[in-house]
Amino acid sequence: MSKNLEKFFTAFILLPLCLFLIPSLIFWSPQSYQQISCDLIALIMVIILNKTWLHVEVNFFSGKRPFNQFLNAIPALVLLLLTKNPFVLSIKSPVLMGFMTILMIAICEEYIYRGILIPLSLRLTNNRLFISVLISSIGFAFAHIVNFEHGSFLVVLSQIILAFATGMLFGTLYLKSKNLSLVIVLHFISDLPLLASNGSAAVLTNSQTYGILMIVLVISLIACLISLVQLHRFSKKSSPIT
After folding, report:
1. Which of 3, 80, 120, 170 is most buried (CB neighbours < 10 A)?
2. pTM for this predicted structure
């Protein structure tokens, strides 16, 4: 139990630590390269840790029941269509580098929080699917606290809550589809508006900010309910975690 807890905590805290510490270590590099560098270093570190210590099987692709995978992805797709993140961390780089950065963010975060953290959470919770998705989503939301450096408290808080909601749906989809690639694609699509932000966040009034906060709180509750319903009849034997 203690070893599993150590592994869980390491995976939980790794990305936020990298996002806090690495920029100060590569201060000499252009700002447009810092985000992709942080995620690439974090990804390499967690891959090495997984090979040598964590020993988690990550399911990158599954071609089984593609129609069912699409049906399971509908809640996440609806969330992407109906919401727009109050982006604070934006991409200030040429289009090609922007696409590469967004892709690296999606790969890194999904590998860590869905591919690694969900299995570790299942080990800690005796295969409680919903609780494990909940824990991994909290970790995913926690990784966004670095954005407080770039934006106002309420706007970033809204982003964190929305990240939690997204994590609930992405985590549920990963458990049911055994297809991390599908989740990575959805994550990539959800971050595409970063390219259109042109390095700046929208200026919001206080009433608009509080309105967004209330909306994302409701969305988070709905996402939790959807996840609970989707996982209710999902057999533990069908879990992608071994």
Report:
1. 170
2. 0.91
Task: Quote the CA–CA distance of 97 and 150 in Å, as a whole number.
Answer: 21
CA distance 69 to 180: 11
- Amino acid code (one letter) for 98: G
Q: In angstroms, what CA-CA distances link 92 with 95, 97, 101?
A: 9, 9, 10
Q: Are 98 and 184 in contact (CB under 8 A)?
A: no
Q: Are 213 and 161 in contact (CB under 8 A)?
A: yes
d(CA 233, CA 60): 24
Q: Look at the block and give the residue holding tokens 């809550």.
A: 161
DSSP state at residue 20: H
Q: DSSP string covering 162-177, please?
A: HHHHHHHHHHHHHHHH
- Over the stretch 110-144, which tens digit does the pLDDT of each residue have? 999 999 999 999 999 999 999 999 999 999 999 99
Name residues whose C-beta falls within 8 Å of residue 71's C-beta, 6 or more positions apart in sequence.
Answer: none
**Mean of per-residue pLDDT scores for the chain:** 87
Among residues 117, 210, 219, which one has the least CA distance to residue 164? Answer: 219
CA distance 14 to 165: 21
Residue 64 backbone class (left: φ over 0; alpha: ψ -120 to 50; beta: rest): beta
| Whether 125 contacts 191, CB under 8 Å | no
Distances (CA, A) of 176 to 90, 91, 169, 204: 31, 32, 11, 38
Which range has the top average pLDDT, 142-151, 178-187, 207-216?
178-187
Rounded (5°) CA angle 81-85-86 = 145
